[in-house]
Amino acid sequence: MVDAGLSFGAGLLIGGLSLMLVWGLLWLVIGGIGLVRQTCGWAIFMSSVSSTTIAGLSMAGLFWVVDATRLSSIALHLGLAGVPLALLAAGFGRLEDGRRIGPAFVEGSRLMGHQLLGVHEDGCGHCHEKPCEEKL
């Protein structure tokens, strides 16, 4: 029973760290492109580098510690499935303003990516140089 619990916990950790690694890599690419285009600063890029590095090193350490036979256990696979299921369940929750969490998160991430990449529909109006109050 303890062995199954350890496998399940390792699965949860691997699932969470892999999500953190992929999310960090996504923002590393977006931050790198934004840095080259000068639409975002070093703080965004370095934050992505640090989160990707922390997740990658933690996963490497976890794989080094976990026994190879544990990696094929059903409990570990259930733990791996726990992270996406928890995110899916949380995505159906509602924010204080009544919107669902999942679509609001996706829209916020899309807008943040557009801001960092300097994406504009009507060409660049240099709105990234103006304070937020002046944007319409």
Describe what is shown at a glance.
The chain is mostly helical. It has 4 helices and no strands.
Could you list some keywords that capture this structure?
136 residues, mainly alpha, 70% helix, disordered C terminus
Describe it.
Helices cover 70% and strands 0% of the residues. The chain is flat, with a radius of gyration of 19 Å. It is built from 4 helices and no strands. The longest helix has 36 residues, at 2-37. The chain has helices at 2-37, 42-65, 74-91, 101-117. It has one domain. α1 (2-37) runs antiparallel to α2 (42-65) and α1 (2-37) packs across α3 (74-91). It is mainly α and 136 residues long. The model is unreliable at 132-136 (pLDDT under 50).
Helix and strand topology:
Blueprint (H helix, E strand, L loop, with lengths): L1 H36 L4 H24 L8 H18 L9 H17 L19
Helix pairs in contact: 1-2, 1-3
Sheet-strand content, in percent, reads under 5%
Largest sheet: none
Number of contiguous helices: 4
Poorly predicted residue ranges: 132-136
End-to-end separation: 60 Å
Order of H and E elements: HHHH
* Count of folded domains: 1
**Mean of the pLDDT scores?**
84
Work out the helicity level.
55-70%
Gross geometry: flat
How many runs of DSSP E, i.e. beta strands? 0
Rg from C-alpha positions? Answer: 19 Å
Structural class by secondary-structure content: mainly alpha
The assembly state of the depicted protein chains is single chain
